Hints:
The complex is a heterodimer.
Chain A: E1 4-5, H1 10-15, E2 20-26, H2 31-44, E3 50-56, H3 62-66, E4 74-79, E5 82-88, H4 93-100
Parallel strand pairs in A: 1-3, 2-3
Antiparallel strand pairs in A: 2-4, 4-5
Chain B: E1 2-7, H1 11-22, E2 27-30, H2 56-69, E3 73-75, E4 79-84, E5 89-93, E6 97-105, E7 109-111, E8 127-128, H3 131-134, E9 142-146, H4 150-160, E10 165-169, H5 180-186, E11 191-194, E12 197-204, E13 208-215, E14 221-225, E15 228-231, E16 235-237, E17 267-269, H6 281-308
Parallel strand pairs in B: 1-2, 1-6, 2-3, 6-17, 8-15, 9-10, 9-15, 10-11
Antiparallel strand pairs in B: 4-5, 5-6, 7-16, 12-13, 13-14
Helix pairs in contact in B: 1-2, 1-6, 4-5
The structure holds flavin-adenine dinucleotide.
Amino acid sequence: xxxxxxxxxxxxxxxxxxxxxxxxxxxxxxxxxxxxxxxxxxxxxxxxxxxxxxxxxxxxxxxxxxxxxxxxxxxxxxxxxxxxxxxxxxxxxxxxxxxxxxxxx
Amino acid sequence: xxxxxxxxxxxxxxxxxxxxxxxxxxxxxxxxxxxxxxxxxxxxxxxxxxxxxxxxxxxxxxxxxxxxxxxxxxxxxxxxxxxxxxxxxxxxxxxxxxxxxxxxxxxxxxxxxxxxxxxxxxxxxxxxxxxxxxxxxxxxxxxxxxxxxxxxxxxxxxxxxxxxxxxxxxxxxxxxxxxxxxxxxxxxxxxxxxxxxxxxxxxxxxxxxxxxxxxxxxxxxxxxxxxxxxxxxxxxxxxxxxxxxxxxxxxxxxxxxxxxxxxxxxxxxxxxxxxxxxxxxxxxxxxxxxxxxxxxxxxxxxxxxxxxx
Lengths: 105, 309
Ligand SMILES: Cc1cc2nc3c(=O)[nH]c(=O)nc-3n(C[C@H](O)[C@H](O)[C@H](O)COP(=O)(O)OP(=O)(O)OC[C@H]3O[C@@H](n4cnc5c(N)ncnc54)[C@H](O)[C@@H]3O)c2cc1C
């Protein structure tokens, strides 16, 4: 699925979304986030049933605060708008595939 | 079978990758986290010849691009053990095992931990070892930093520009050096120094809530409520997984020499993990160069003995 930016519309795109979404919390000043960017994009192409989103923590400070994000890169997986798991720190493609696991959605 | 396996994609490992890649060896570069190593934390590099004011991230990215251009394998796996056999060596990772003629250990150094309960559990949930990476999440909040070196002072100054309050906790009675950043830090209204004191406990479940402080020679303890704790108490070598085979000094640095050899023939060492006095980018890259060239030489020599037999 195509990656969408959700700096302004977390509620619409994630909180109210029925299904699985993954949010990549990132910032310009975060090196490992930049390294993770292309990995997130590559993997997103392989899954049609997951919504891949990016949220810039400088553009939107409220949502990171609400979810207690205190270190990035951090990816959080949501099901029907509820957090089901997260990973803090850089991971490669295999790591991201493992994180997604075999979701039968 | 690989010619060379390099463990660690920090500056030394990536430099070794460049040299061995250009020499057209069959190379595998292993990295367990993000490529770049410690330099990722440097906000600005001012002392690398020929580069001015580049950030650690940009430097790491450039170096990585340079390595990727070459025809070598790069895998994000963690080396757990190295084994030495008669004719070859083996590297066991968290996912696979690989045979190789030579190994270059370039595993560098990692943050020293306080070693307290809850410390690991709360990393990324209030505990951090990198102010420039995570400081922004503590905007207008109360944080503490512990450590007494230049990194601790520089980080404290950085945090004091973002956070509401910064406690600087140090176990000695005074700092052992002076710097511009330290005198600037002393002038800050929102910074409070707590000397002669250790952190003895960390509290919090889902996130950090407070730390417990104990002043030397005093029995009472105090609890300090904070949102973030930054730990800047130095680095330790990452050599524990090679201890069974490779000789280290009492601190854990791998014993070596100018040629970057170790006690095992065909296993070389490069960068901050090597026993030495100066640990900088320039010395890391220098080691990477020497280790790669010597690994190539070792492979060539082995070939000749094979032919003789
Ligand atoms: C905050 C900070 C600022 C600095 N600023 C400067 C500066 O301005 N100028 C300067 O010259 N130097 C600076 N340094 C020092 C410089 O970063 C180091 O000397 C240099 O990074 C050492 O490189 P290295 O490759 O030996 O080790 P490291 O940088 O430590 O890299 C080692 C790599 O190996 C990986 N690794 C470890 N174990 C394994 C394993 N088992 N399997 C796979 N991979 C593994 C690690 O994840 C890491 O990526 C700074 C250091 C810090 C912490």
